[in-house]
Amino acid sequence: MTEISSYLDNLTQQVKDKISNYITDKAIDNTISNALKSHLEAKTNYLDYYLQTVSNTQHFLAESNFFRVFKKQYSLQAIDNSFLDWLEKQKPAIIQLIRG
Asked: What confidence tens digit (pLDDT) does each residue in 68-81 have?
């Protein structure tokens, strides 16, 4: 029984050491930095997409599945097909509201 306890204690210590080595200030800083960077890049990409849409009205109005692509691109949930169809029909009014 003592050998098993000693073996388990040794394994436990090895796991603790590996975790301690992995969780360092630098690793935490890198993780936070990467998370913020990807979040900010996603916002920038959305802004670029928005500006492209507003600046190219002809393409926006001509594209028949704009809102389905938008939903998929930005992983929007709980938007059913009937609402997407309604949005597609409302594109001229939507672009007017955006432009003010």
From this structure: 888 888 778 888 99
| Dihedral pair phi/psi, residue 77, rounded to 5° | -110, 165
**What's the predicted TM-score (pTM) here?**
0.52
When divided into structural domains, the chain yields a total of 1
Identify whether the C-beta of residue 60 lies closer than 8 Å to the C-beta of residue 53: yes
Strand ranges in the chain using DSSP code E only, listed in sequence order: none
| Domain membership flag for residue 9 | no
Report residue 29 as tokens: 């800083």
Q: Alpha-carbon torsion 76, 82, 83, 87, what sign? A: positive
Please state, in angstroms and as integers, the Cα–Cα distance from residue 8 to each residue in 5, 14, 100, following that order: 5, 10, 69
**Residue position matching structure tokens 């169809």:** 85
Tell me, yes or no, whether 25 lies in a domain. no
